Amino acid sequence: MVGRRNASRRNGLAEWLKAQPAEPTIIDNKTASGTAEKKGTIRRQYTRPYLAHASIAPSCAMAQWSGDRVHVWTHSQGVYFLRADLAPVLKLPLENITVEHMEGAGCYGHNAADDVALDAVLLARAAAGRPVRVQWTREDEMSHAPFGAAMAIEIEADLDAQGEIIDWRHSIWSNGHTARPGRAAQPALLAATELANPFPRYIATNPPQANGGGADRNSIPLYDFPSWRIECHRLLTMPVRTSALRALGAQGNVFAIESFLDELATERGEDPVDFRLRHQSDSRAKDVIRSAARRTNWKPE
Question: What's the predicted TM-score (pTM) here?
């Protein structure tokens, strides 16, 4: 995670993300009944790079054909979803495909376990019934497995004459955060895009807010601001394959929100713990903040 604008400018990531064609979505809009006069605006930008899963071991799978039936062994996180993507690629009914889970490298997201399964299936089809085991190299895993999506997050706060927040705006630019197999009409497996008659590359999407969201996950503040507007721009180009990495966009959004709160508190000369407590009405959330401060031996400067 990169804090602040200067680091972002050095690598140009935010500018590149914001220049791509994108699908905008309003995530949430809250309007205050009465708004104080704006006396100033503070704006900050935060970025997250593309992140590799870097599983402790490369992805691996085995496949064996018997006539027009195939048996696959893989460490996929979703054997039925994988089977749903294999069926259109192989032009087989689902009942002709068996996918069996085996212990293998985990990733808390979406690594290449599904991709390597299709590799094994395609190679085994030419092996006259012999089982074929395929293991990606470390180089394969780090260059062709899906990455966690890069993010550019811009937050603005309008302040009144007393320096209090009267409006909050949070904008995200990012690829979609899931391209798992079995969720769409077209397969999301890598080798499916490299056949003689290839399927189009699946452009990663975001789960709806009702399911937790994707790039927008945790972007709606848990603090008591009078008004806000949260929007997400999902990139429609995908030069780097992206999909689910643990917590999807929550890591980027929480980092940005909490970092911005620290900066706002500093601008006011207020202790950041007190600043948070003052903008929080949920008693359990307050207890979490107090507990964190106590356990870290926090002392106001």
Answer: 0.91
CATH dotted code for 55-145+179-208 = 3.30.365.10
The CATH topology of domain 5-52+149-177+213-269 is: Aldehyde Oxidoreductase; domain 4 (3.30.365)
> CB 219: neighbour CB atoms within 10 A?
26
Residue 8: the pLDDT is: 44
pLDDT of residue 217: 98
d(CA 233, CA 210): 18
> What are the boundaries of each domain within the chain?
5-52+149-177+213-269, 55-145+179-208
Answer for the pair 63, 124: CB distance below 8 angstroms, yes or no: yes
29, 229 Cβ separation under 8 angstroms? yes
Percent of the chain with pLDDT strictly greater than 70:
96
Would 5-52+149-177+213-269 and 55-145+179-208 be classified into the same CATH topology? yes
pLDDT tens-digit series, residues 244-270: 999 999 999 999 999 999 999 999 999
Read off the pLDDT band of 10 (50, 70, 90). Answer: low
